Known about the structure:
This protein is mainly β. Strands 2, 4, 5, 6, 9, 10 and 11 form a 7-stranded mixed β-sheet that branches. The chain has a 4-stranded antiparallel β-sheet with strand order 1-3-8-7, with no helix packed on it. Helix content is about 0%, strand content about 50%.
Amino acid sequence: GELQEAGGGSVQAGGSLRLSCAASGATDGNNCVAWFLQAPGTEREGVAIQYTVGGATYYADSVKGRFTITEDNAKNTVSLQMSGLKSEDTAMFYCAAGFGAWTRVPPPTAMDYWGKGTLVSISS
């Protein structure tokens, strides 16, 4: 399977952006899509996860109440609506697909397929 992110850009602090992750090709065997971010010089960390079976979602504490992950089965996409953006949200955002039963955002090593990322830049 392949994943393609879109929707990154530059906004001022307090603003909003919507990222999307489109899946193509075979993704059988995966039951979740997650978003991760990686700021310069830091490790990749989880932001949110959407189970495509059952619909459960989980968020990192740093984004709870500000980010919302949703799926559109008809379009085979998973989106991340981000509001109340902060300068510390500046990072490359990646979507990834995997299979598991976590009750939190899993570590990056748990995911099977990755997109190439989209850059989000927040100015203060």
